[in-house]
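Researcher: We're reviewing a set of sequences before deciding which ones to prioritize for further study. For each one, I'd like a predicted 3D structure that I can look through quickly. This is Polyamine ABC transporter substrate-binding protein. If possible, include the structure in token form so it fits the rest of the review sheet.
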Amino acid sequence: MRKTFGVKLVAAAALSLASLGAVSHAAMAETLRIGLEAADYSTLDPDRATATQDVALVSWMFNGLVRFAPGSADPARIEPDLASSWETSKDGLVWTFHLKDNVKFHEDYGTLSADDVVFSFERAKNPETSSYASDYAAFDKIEALDAKTVRITLREPVPGFLGLVANYHGGNIISKKAVEKLGADFQRHPIGTGPFKFDEAITQQSVSLTAFADYFRGAPHIDGIRADFIPSDSSRELAFRSGELDLIYGQRERHWVDQAMFWDNTTVDIFAPGEFRTLFINRAHAPLDNIKVRQAIADAIDVDQIVQFVGSGIARKGCSVVPVGYMGEDCSWAYSYNPEKAKQLLAEAGFENGLNLTAVVSSSSAQKPIMEVIQAQLAKVGINLQMNVVDHPTYHQQIRKDLSDLVFYGAARYPVADSYLSQFYHSDAAIGKPTAVTNFGHCDAGDADITAAKKAATDEERLKYWSAAQQKISEQVCSVPLFSLMQVWARNNALDYGVELKGSLNLAPPITELTTLSR
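Model: Here's the predicted structure for Polyamine ABC transporter substrate-binding protein, in token form for your review sheet.
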């Protein structure tokens, strides 16, 4: 039977894995088994979850004050979640949220109150407890006006403010009581309000979630989720095609999609947002502190060849340091492929006989093959790139220790320029600082404009500052923008998400109370 092929601009799926054997067919269908491309999870604390597999698991257990409609990554479709309604002042500096009644936390942690919301955002803005603290720098006061009302006062207007209080990254609301009771164990035993609650984690094997019967939108249709960590692409495929998995993280390559679309009872979903792939050049490492060396690297990279390698429909070429399609993206200063100029610049920098660089590279199929293409391109101009290939969690650990000359990194953020510029290009976010986020290039050229844009009163003024920041960052050559890589998942046709899928900022299927599995 030929599989149906659904290329959707969003979407993702879920899985079902039960133990094949003594368990009945009906029982198997009640638990969704998912195959994730990872060796293990790193943390289930939503304020620290940055790895793709961690963010996915968190998204099924937590809620925000508002949410992106399931199956959507469109900011225009933000809707109420834990808040029933909200108001804002005319100047956009004061936001007041009214919480829904009788929203229960998992286990015995009581009912959601304004104190939990205040605690959650104070924690999200604290660099000692959050990887997203820079996003919340403009949060001046967070107050509980009463048990069901929260007021947030900003220092300056924040473009896309609702995205910061949505079910995404630091916007996820946690139980104050649980964090205070569990302490460091909260990252291994998260407590949220979502449709699924944490059950069990087996190191380097799986994380199991169970349906939360008291979920405020109603009990889920499926009994739970089991996410298996299967870093091997071939092993995930085998488990899926043999019926042990209902949903797998696919390979984001055209040739894989073209093959998977002919598997029996299978749908391949390709969806947004794309994770923007960038090659960061570490200015803190000599000789990369030499502008001519950084320019040579930019001139040596043929982005068109890389996009062709990844495949049409899977990759969208980038141009600015701001991702494709984000509000404020300006491509006026894009780099162009010029290998002869690269050789000339290296010679002028004193490296006419070549240059040796090292890079920590993830073994992930979404990274290693592309870095091999980049390695070959650099070799043509005399740059020898030694790749230290490690598993994906180790890769994340090592690049955050500043161990790599070049850092290939992909991420999706709330689709406005500030979210990317602040986290990847402001010096406050540079690796090694207490406020570090993901500024792997140690860039500082756009600081003043990035900061000024945060205080701008109008979009017109904000766009002007963002444009200036992109020009200065481009001239400093902190990175080489590559492409946006779309999400690719394969699911059994028995899996129904319960919603039309058009996007997921959490980069994973929106498994909700509406999701069904009919075998």
